[in-house]
Every structure is written in C-alpha cells, then in structure tokens.
Design goal:
The structure is a homotetramer of 215-residue chains. With 215 residues, chain A is mostly helical. Chain A has ten helices and no strands. Chains in contact: A-B, C-D. Chains C and D meet through helix 6, helix 7, helix 8, helix 9 and helix 10 of C and helix 6, helix 7, helix 8, helix 9 and helix 10 of D. The structure holds a DNA duplex (21 and 21 nucleotides).
Chain lengths: 215, 215, 215, 215
DNA sequence: AATGAATGAGCATTCATTCAT
DNA sequence: CATGAATGAATGCTCATTCAT
C-alpha cells in the first residue's frame, strides 16, 4: 500500500491529528450515532490502523479530543456573538447565539452524550482532567466576558449558566434524536409529543435558564 | 444445577421479570455505568442465561424495561407530591418533589443517558414505541393534574415542562457523574468548577424552567 | 393454552406421529433446506415442544422417520409401476417410474442428503439400523420383483441398481439445488453449465445405470 | 502467547491460507463429518481465532475453499491420466483414473455433501459464484481434452459426464459412510447389503455413465 | 399424556490494541 | 514514522432437551 507522507515537523503532526479527527467525525455523523471502529477511521483518513495509535493512546481519546475541539469552537462562536454586540447584550441574542452553533453541529451533542459515560472510561484520568482544565479556563474567560455584557449576574454565575445550558442541550438532544427506525414510526399522530422539536425546546429552555438571574 | 421454581401463573411470571430487572439494576449501579452482560444478570437473578431470553427478546429490552419502570416510579412520586398538596402548589415544592426521586435514584438518570442512544438500538421499533406511548399517556395525565395545581400554565405546557426537566436532569447527571478515576482527581482545587454539585444545579435549573411560565 | 386431545389408543398415537412428521416436512420444504427447530415443528403441529419428545427421542429421529416414510413411498410407487406393466418392462418405463416420484418429491432428496451425514449422528445406532433393516427387506422384495420383469439381471443386481439410482439422485439434487441467493445469480450466461436441469440429468443418468446390465 | 510469524509477502499469505485449510481438513476428517469450530481450526493451525478471519470472511468460506481446492486437485489428477495416455483412452482407464483420486480423498466427497446445502448458506453469493465459475472453466477445459481422447462424445458431453460422475460419487459416499456407531453395527450379516462397498459401486456406476455415450 | 418453563452448552464474530517489519 | 498482520478477550443468542406441574 501507499505509505502516508511522514509527518516530521510539529505542524505536520498536528495536521495529521486533525485529519484523523475529521475522519472520525465524518464517520460518526454518518453512522447514526455509533462510535465508528478505529479501522474505519484509519481507512477514511488514508492511514493504517497503527498510525492512529501514534497520535492517540486509545480509541476513546480520539473522540474525546474531537468533542473538545467542537466544544472549543462552540465557545468561540459565543465569544464572537458577545464581541459583535459591543456593549450590553440581551438574553435573547445571547441565547440565539448559544443555540446557533449547537443547532448546526448536532453531532457535537450526540458525541457529548457519549462523552460523559463512555468516552471517559478508557482514558487515563490525567488526560481527561487535562481536557477539563482547558475547558474550565475557557469557560471562566467567557464567563467573565459575559458578565461584562449582561447585567445582574453574580460573579461566577455566567460560567455556571453555560454549564447548565450545555447539560440541558445534551439531555434534550438525546430525547430529540431517536434511532432511524424509531424516528420513522414516530410519525404517528398519537406520538406527536415525542417528536421533540429540538430548536424550539432548546431556545425555550435556554431562555428560561438565562432569565432566571435571580435564582 | 438448581432449577429455579417454575413461573406458571401470570403473577409469577411478572414476579420473575421483576427479579431480572432488579438484578440488572443492581449490576448496572455496581458496574460504574457499563451495561452488564446478560450472563451476569442471569447469574445474579439465580437463573440460566436462556431464561432471561424467555422474558426479554434482547439484552437492550431488559434495560429499557428497567428504565421505563423507574420513570414510571418517578411520575408516581411527582403525582403523590401534587396530591399531597391539596389545592395549588408552589413551584418550589413542585421542583423539590420532582428532584427528590431523581436524587435518590441516580441510576435512573445514568440509564436514561443510554436510553436514547444505546438501548433503543437493538430493539424492535414497535417495542420502543410501545414504551413511549405508555409514557406519553402518563405524562399527559400528570400534566393535566399539574395544570390544575399550578396557575398560569397553558394547556399542554406542563407535560412539556416535565420533558424539559427530564432532559435537563439527564444532561446534568452526565456532567456530574464522571468515572471513578476521574472523580478522584477532581478533588484538585483548580477543578472545583467541574465538581458539579448535582443537587444544587438540578434544583436551580428546574426552578428556572418552571418559573419561566411566560415563555 | 389449549391442550391437545390425548392420544390413548395406538391408532391415535400413530396419527399423532404422522401429524408431527407432516409438520416437520412442511417446514423443511418451506425453510429452504434448513432443518426446522423442534419448537417450530411442535407449533406447526399444534403441540407443545415436550409432546414431540414423547413420540421421538431426538430431533434427528423425527427427520429420519420422515425420510424413511418417503423412501417407502418411493418404493411403493416403483412397485406399482412394475405391477402395472404386467409382464416385462422396458428400461425406459422403469426409469420414468423411478424418476417420477423423486421429481415430485424433491424434499425427499434434500432430506436424504442430510440423512447420511447429519441425521444419523444424534440417533441411537440401533434405531438407525432398524430403519435400514426395514429398507433392506423392502429393497430385496422390490429387487426380486424387478428381476422378474427385466431380463438380463443377475440375482441381487436390481436392488443394487436401486441403491445406485438413489445415490445418483441424491448427489445430483445437491448440484441442482443451490441456495436461493446463488440460484438468482446463476442466471448469468457464463454459468449456464451450473444450472443443472435436474429432470434431464436424472433420467439420463438412471438410464445409463440401468442399461449397463452387463457390468 | 506465541505470535505466529507475520505473513507479509503474498506467497506467505497464500501459505498461511493453505495452513488454515489443512488444519480445517484434518479436523473435518477426524471429527466424523461435523464441521469443526473456527476456534478448533485456529488452534490446530497454531493461530488465534481472529487470524482465521483475516483470511476467510466466514467459517463456511474456509470449507468451501477447501472443497474447491480438492476438486481442483481431482480435475488435475484426471487431466494427468488423460495426458499420460497419449492418444485415445479406454473408458475403463478413464473411470479408474477418475475414481482413484476420490478413493484416496474420501473427505472431499464428505465435504461435498455439505457443500451444496450448508456451505453455500453463509457466504456471499458472489463468492460462491466465483468458485463455481472457476470450476466451470476447468471443467470445460478438461471436457474438451477428454473429447479429444474418447471417440463418440458429442461436444459438451464430457463435462456433463464429469458433473454426473461427481454427483454420483457424492451421493454414493453418503450411503457408504455412516457414523462410526452405525458402521460397527453394520457388521451384522443381515445388513450386508448396507455395507456398500464404495470402490466397487463407484466404478460400476461410473462405467455405466461413461459407457452410455449414446444417451 | 401433555405442557412449556428452565436449562446451559455451544459458537461465530468483532474489534481495540500491539508490535515485528 | 508508518504499516497491517496477529492477537484473543468478550458476549449475545439459539435451541435441543428435561422435567415439574
């Protein structure tokens, strides 16, 4: 077989990591919520199985890295929304900005529901902590910035609200995203209630959470 | 080997089903969030592997049945709270009542996070729908009753709020319940933010959701 | 469940045996050459699984009994052909008579190919021998009668020829009866040779065998 | 555990395939006609179970490959016989040559009786067809060569006769090869007729088939 | 005689991970 | 660095058979 070009420089290695994550994501999206096999990821990335293990210690690390990447992007997107609205921002705009990314990247939420039960199982705790730590910093930063734009927030409350929002979104997505076979049957009228409209419910819930500034 | 007493009458069969579910639950709690093997469940219930398959068509059916059982209990508990407060009820009491069961049965939430990604995969869609349908009825009923006790609710809104509450609780639990090894490391001070206190956050979030009656 | 009428008299028991065999045959034909499960046979016969075991010691016994029943019928049919042609018979007529039954009961041949590899495995040797013995007697009888109608046969040769014919038919059927999926693909022109026409080849082979009286 | 030497080059992989087939064959012969488990085959070949699946997609594929290998050898042997007799060949010599290989490789026939009921079941139809196609070519080739050596054959008849011969041999072997326990009992005098002498009957039948050139 | 609940041996297959090349 | 052959643990499920009722 063709041998993939060797990644010598650091930037090349990072590039290769990214390729693996992209392959993993593409397969995850396509596979209807099953974690794809390492073999499949490697093949999609044009690499050999062993090569994946040069960049990630376990399969779960691949997907946890992916999840963190996407979560980072989410925070980036929210940051941008904040910065775009020079000065104070309305809860509505904040909620819309927060929801937007998630609505466009549903796989992030799907992955997230694995994140905290499956993915963290087969990874060295140190690694998990590392990711969490990075996320904490990002959240604190975003929280501070948010508190500057949204009056009535107790210090530290904004980052807590982001966590709550994330939790709500993750849980909601699980209700809203049944397996294909089930989804088909849900068209029945008497099951309308279970055809959760993700967008509506997400925005409703987030609005409730962010408006409850006095809790 | 010892042969389990034969369940001939219907009530005996139901009893045996219940024994299997209890065994499954015990192992699920003990195993840190992995679905135990059918062999293990059978052994714990004092039965042969094949016997489990007399009562459930697949492994996933066992756990989906368990989840539904517990969700039913949850709705029972909330119903009781409503009925105990003859007349109108405050959001605080409702939230407390809602949260209580979940706080005492964390495995329900852990199981729930499987429920909508893993459990529904290897089950006939019809069966899944059957469970959902039963739950819809229960929710509608509870919703109606709730709307009678809590002023300011649009018809149909209460059951929607229960769904939102459930989603939030499920998502939150996933944040709050890392694997043991990770939990240990989270004692570090700089990770305080990730030591999500489930009870506090659950009540805060639920209160926000239920107070937002005007969304 | 409804309890099947008890078979007390001997004729009733034989009738029940026959019902089981008919059920087994029907399922065997329908299932594309897989031995149906005992549960399926019992259900089809309107009996409980355990009841089948009152009439046959093992699953294999059921199908061996069925095979022997059909083989007996085959010999009956050939006998009739012989008797119909008062006096000498031509090889052509004999072959036609021999082939006829087999052409109309292809399941007999399909079953036969199990008969001598699978079916005889899980049966007491005594039972197998019993069936064989009965068949020997029948063959000897038919052989003698045949030798009276077909000149040029050495004593004992006719029954030998019947065995050869049976062997040939069994083997040929296996070539001519691929699984459905394969059969579909065999429509391709370059595989014409493998679309063995059972009737043509059967008659050709049998004629060759029976004409070779001087070997 | 000891790790088998890695097969990197193509010839090494073919060698390994062959080892697996040999292991499968040895166990098949030893086991009295039951398809051995993959675990057993792997162990016998000194490999891990998974390794077998690197070379064959299913268990059935292993045995179908084995069958085809042996059938190829059979045709080779017949070809050699033809070529050895420069010029015309007698039916007797051809039959002897044809029978010889089968007499020395009875497992080929035993396997063949699975081949067309069990083996072709759990294999992609494409694969089955592939094998059949290869066999067709070989048969056509051998048929042509045969027709050059045996006068009085219509074009295409020889390969048809080979198929008939094969069918007869397969069927006959099933009569001649009862399970051990049965074979023991067959020593009884009154069962002499069922002690089918494979060699005698095979040659008699083949001779009949090949002499019937005018059918 | 009839039932059908209980049994448990048996087995193919997958796939994350390692490590010789 | 990259490869991919080899590993082998892990497990859901079937189904012939038994036997208490």
């Amino acid at each position: 077989m063709a041998v993939a070009r060797r990644a010598r420089a650091d930037w090349q290695k990072q590039e290769r990591q990214r390729e693996i994550l992209l392959a993993a994501e593409a397969l995850f999206i396509g596979a209807g919520g099953q974690l794809p096999s390492v073999a499949a990821v490697a093949a999609r990335a044009g690499l050999a199985k062993g090569t994946v293990y040069l960049y990630f210690k376990t399969k779960e690390e691949v997907f946890l890295a992916l999840l963190n990447w996407r979560l980072g992007e989410w925070l980036d997107a929210v940051t941008e929304v904040l910065e775009a609205s020079k000065g104070p921002i309305s809860v509505d705009r904040l909620v819309a900005g927060t929801a937007d990314y998630l609505l466009n990247h549903p796989d992030t939420l799907r992955l997230a529901s694995y994140g905290h039960s499956v993915l963290e199982q087969n990874i060295e705790a140190e690694t998990v902590i590392g990711y969490k730590l990075a996320m904490v910093e990002r959240l604190a930063e975003l929280g501070a910035k948010t508190e500057g734009c949204l009056p009535g927030l107790v210090p530290g409350q904004a980052s807590r609200l982001y966590l709550q929002s994330y939790a709500y979104a993750v849980g909601l997505w699980q209700m809203a995203d049944p397996p294909e076979a089930v989804k088909a049957l849900l068209q029945r009228d008497d099951l309308a209630m279970f055809r959760v409209d993700f967008e509506t419910e997400l925005k409703a819930g987030l609005t409730a959470l962010w408006n409850a500034l006095d809790n």
